[in-house]
């Protein structure tokens, strides 16, 4: 059955790119509501922004959604990944500004808060988007593909010049709480050589060594080092799950990303929905539901670092 959280939970911090204070509250919602964001600082325009693939506007370094009135919310990928990874299908996410708080740079604080409140079943069945045939998108540097699979599966490949990251590959079946155990605590990362350019472009103004992994050649500059030796590719998978959650329902398929990012994952969803023969919407049975992210996840499975 569809789910929501049992009671509201709030998070406060700063926006990674804006550097401005941000407060976000996740509220329970009824069946068939889906995930919506609400800008509390927009009294004169429509404050509701759908967390949906066709509301995404291309933006470097984050996922940015906009409604028809031009009201926007950015850097939604970590909270979206947390909701998807905990198996939450319906929620209203209130926010007091244009960007979600970055917190520690991962989804773990959101996951811990959601699971502390608990998950409540609703009275409508879960529907999933079943991928029926492969679809893909390509750029000069990378590609992304969705293909049929029994559950929600993901493979990712990255390759960076900095030896602290280098070449990393990971494949994961996201069923039975794997996101919570394996991915949720992996933080956003960047190369130290890119920081100045991002600041000049008005990005990463709220970034610190505490809310991002910063690497310089073979060195990790952030205190405490890495949470996982392959934390970078794990975070790319976290981002991809958050961006796939904008499909509006869990995706039953295998996502593959080769040097992929936010824009490419959104382009992949647009390609999928532009091909009606490539997918179908089906009502979940118990066996299928057990293979989805968040199924059976327990609060004690959140990594201790979170």
**Roughly how many Å apart are the termini?**
28 Å
* Mean pLDDT, all residues: 93
Please report the total strand number as a whole number: 20
The fraction of residues assigned to DSSP E strands is 25-35%
Q: In CATH's first tier, which class of the largest domain applies?
A: Alpha Beta
What CATH architecture label of the largest domain applies?
A: 2-Layer Sandwich
- Broad structural category: alpha+beta
Largest sheet: 7 strands, mixed
Q: Count of helices?
A: 7
- CATH superfamily of the largest domain, by name, is lpxc deacetylase, domain 2
Low-pLDDT windows of residues: none
Shape: globular
Radius of gyration: 18 Å
Share of helix among residues?
10-25%
CATH topology (level 3) name of the largest domain: lpxc deacetylase, domain 1
Q: Would you give an account of this structure?
A:
The protein is α+β, with helices and mostly antiparallel strands and 306 residues long. It has two domains: 3-121, Ribosomal Protein S5, domain 2; 127-301, 2-Layer Sandwich (lpxc deacetylase, domain 1), CATH 3.30.1700. The protein is built from seven helices and 20 strands. It has helices spanning 77-85, 108-117, 178-183, 192-200, 231-244, 262-273, 286-289; strands spanning 3-5, 9-14, 21-28, 35-39, 48-50, 56-57, 64-66, 72-74, 91-95, 119-121, 127-131, 135-138, 143-147, 152-159, 167-173, 189-191, 213-216, 219-220, 251-258, 279-283. The strands form five sheets. Strands 11, 12, 13, 14, 15, 19 and 20 form a seven-stranded mixed beta sheet that branches. A five-stranded mixed beta sheet has the order 2-3-9-4-5, covered by helices on one side. A three-stranded antiparallel beta sheet has the order 6-7-8, with no helix packed on it. A hairpin with a 2-residue loop joins strand 17 and strand 18 (219-220). The longest helix has 14 residues, at 231-244.
């Amino acid at each position: 059955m569809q789910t929501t959280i049992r009671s509201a939970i709030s998070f406060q911090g700063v926006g990674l790119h804006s550097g401005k204070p941000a407060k976000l509250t996740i509220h329970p919602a009824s069946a068939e509501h889906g995930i919506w964001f609400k800008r509390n600082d927009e009294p004169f325009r429509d404050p509701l922004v759908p967390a949906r693939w066709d509301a995404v506007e291309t933006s470097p370094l984050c996922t940015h959604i906009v409604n028809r009135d031009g009201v926007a919310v950015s850097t939604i990928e970590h909270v979206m990944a947390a909701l998807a990874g905990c198996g939450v299908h319906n929620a209203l996410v209130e926010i007091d500004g244009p960007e979600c708080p970055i917190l520690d740079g991962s989804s773990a604080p959101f996951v811990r808060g959601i699971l502390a409140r608990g998950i409540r079943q609703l009275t409508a069945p879960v529907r999933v988007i079943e991928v029926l045939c492969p679809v893909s998108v390509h750029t000069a540097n990378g590609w992304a593909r969705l293909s049929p699979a029994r559950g929600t599966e993901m493979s990712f490949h990255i390759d960076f010049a900095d030896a602290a990251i280098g070449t990393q590959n990971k494949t994961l079946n996201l069923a039975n709480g794997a996101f919570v155990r394996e991915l949720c605590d992996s933080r956003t990362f960047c190369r130290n050589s890119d920081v100045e350019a991002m600041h000049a472009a008005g990005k990463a103004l709220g970034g610190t060594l505490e809310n991002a992994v910063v690497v310089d050649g073979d060195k990790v500059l952030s205190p405490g080092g890495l949470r996982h030796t392959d934390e970078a590719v794990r975070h790319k998978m976290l981002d991809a799950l958050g961006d796939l959650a904008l499909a509006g329902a869990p995706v039953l398929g295998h996502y593959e990303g080769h040097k992929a990012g936010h824009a490419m994952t959104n382009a992949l969803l647009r390609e999928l929905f532009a091909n009606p023969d490539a997918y179908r919407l089906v009502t979940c049975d118990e066996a299928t539901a057990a293979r989805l992210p968040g199924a059976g996840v327990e609060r004690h499975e959140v990594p201790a670092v979170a």
